[in-house]
Every structure is written in structure tokens, then in C-alpha cells.
Amino acid sequence: MSPDEVRALIRSIPDFPRPGILFRDVTTLMGHAAGFTASVDWLARRASAHRSEAIVGIEARGFIFGAPVAAALGLPFIPVRKPGKLPVPSLSVAYELEYGTDCLELGSGPIKLLAVQANS
Fold it and tell me: Cα–Cα distance between 42 and 48 in angstroms, integer?
């Protein structure tokens, strides 16, 4: 599938969750087998071209796309979570959205694992 064909599978919803926001709903892409496969393949090619050592996915849609990319490339997958979801010490970063603020957390385990692998 061409990039334009994949892009056409993403539904745009104006004024969600607030007026002035154009929400891109990728569930329509995920529900289209050929489009989803093309997306994962494209992401995997990009990650491979950059010699990625791991794939990081932000909850929740990033898990859906990131995990198959990591599996296809034989790389570790590192999930980045919403606040309060990790039972271990974590790093956190706050950020601003068009309609508020949010925070993401990363457990220290994946970083230590990558450091060990890099030094092996």
C-alpha cells in the first residue's frame, strides 16, 4: 500500500476532545489488515535504517504499533506508561498537550537491560 492509501485509512475527527483539536483516530487503520501490516513494515524499515537498538512505544497506541515492529526486527520493546502503572521505580516526564498536561513514566529495568546488552 502507498503512504497515501495508508493515510486515507486514518479517520479525522474535528473538535475532539475539545473544540479546535483535530483528532486522528488510528483504530480505523488498525482494523484494516493490509494497512496495519504496511504501517508496521514501514516503521520497521525506518527503525532498521537508523540502526535502532530498541523500540519504545507510548501507551497505548504505541504498544500496538511498537511491539510488532520490535518483534519483526528482533529488538527489545520498551513500554512507556501512564502515571501510576509501574510497580517499580521509574523515570517520569511531564508534557503539555493542546488541551492540558500529562505525564509519562519509564521503568528503570529496560534502561539497565539495554546498558548490559550494549556492554556485552
Answer: 10
> pLDDT tens for residues 42-92?
999 999 999 999 999 998 899 999 999 999 999 999 999 988 888 888 888
DSSP class of 100:
E
pLDDT band at 119 (very low <50, low <70, confident <90, very high): low
Fold of the CATH domain 3-118: Rossmann fold (3.40.50)
- Distance (Å) of CA 71 to CA 63, 74, 77: 12, 5, 8
pTM of the model: 0.81
CB 90 within 8 A of CB 108: yes
Q: Domain ranges for the chain, please list them.
A: 3-118
DSSP state of 75: -
Strands 55-58 and 22-25: unpaired
Write out the catalytic residue numbers. Answer: 61, 98
Query: Rounded distance, CA 23 to CA 99, Å?
Result: 12
Q: How far apart are CA 31 and CA 33, in angstroms?
A: 6
